[in-house]
């Protein structure tokens, strides 16, 4: 849990950095093992935290950003609400109707129904919103989605030291894990609520460790 928390929480740490920090504490672990721990336990932590999450607000901001895996760029669909909660993240090989439909289906599973959804001007969004959220007002004016663009920068700051991701699965795991830790830090769930704010993430991981 310590290795996974460090890696997801601190933007400048690589797997080798975590290996070194563990070695300073007398724990001899190869950086490849740290990578495997992150891939194995991050989805379990996210699933265990799901019942503790707050219901997303009723104004959503949706956009895609790009990340690089060996040999190609892939898309990350992301959504945040007005309070800054990351609603969901989805890695996709394509930026099309199928991907947008899948993303909204997944995002809606967290509960709540937005009254307003702000997106860029991608052609797929009007159709998907008409299918899945017909009552929601759709905003696609230029610069209207600056809030989600700003939030992308938090993820990019985490990915930058990594100099690319190893594979598609890693892109999904790390970006989802980053969103999970970001939500904990911002108080968008009931984890670590009695802890000192500086220790909220570590307290949340300790609680979740009991669940997995």
Automatic annotation (TrEMBL):
Per the UniProt entry, what are the Gene Ontology biological process annotations, in alphabetical order? DNA recombination; transposition
Q: Which InterPro entries match?
A: DDE_dom, IS_Transposase, RNaseH-like_sf, Transpos_IS6
On whether DNA-binding is a keyword of this UniProt record, the answer is: yes
Question: Recorded GO terms, molecular function?
Answer: DNA binding
**Official protein name in the record:** Transposase
Q: Which UniProt keywords apply?
A: DNA recombination, DNA-binding, Transposition
Q: Which Pfam families match?
A: DDE_Tnp_IS240 (PF13610)
All copies of domain DDE, residue ranges: 58-188
């Amino acid at each position: 849990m310590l290795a996974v928390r460090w890696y997801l929480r601190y933007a400048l740490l690589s797997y080798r950095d975590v290996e070194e920090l563990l070695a300073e504490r007398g724990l001899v672990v190869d950086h490849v093992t740290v990578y495997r721990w992150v891939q194995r336990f991050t989805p379990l932590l996210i699933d265990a935290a799901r019942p503790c999450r707050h219901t997303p607000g009723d104004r959503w901001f949706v956009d895609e950003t790009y990340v690089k895996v060996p040999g190609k760029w892939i898309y990350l669909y992301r959504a945040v609400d007005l309070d800054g909660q990351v609603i969901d993240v989805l890695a996709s090989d394509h930026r099309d109707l199928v991907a947008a439909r899948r993303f909204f289906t997944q995002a809606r599973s967290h509960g709540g129904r937005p009254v307003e959804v702000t997106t860029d001007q991608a052609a797929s969004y009007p159709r998907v919103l008409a299918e899945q959220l017909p009552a929601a007002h759709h905003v696609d004016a230029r610069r209207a989605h600056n809030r989600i663009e700003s939030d992308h920068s938090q993820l990019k700051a985490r990915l930058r030291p990594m100099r690319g991701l190893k594979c598609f699965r890693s892109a999904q795991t790390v970006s989802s894990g980053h969103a999970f830790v970001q939500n904990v830090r911002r108080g968008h769930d009931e984890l670590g609520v009695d802890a000192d704010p500086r220790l909220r993430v570590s307290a949340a991981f300790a609680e979740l460790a009991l669940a997995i």
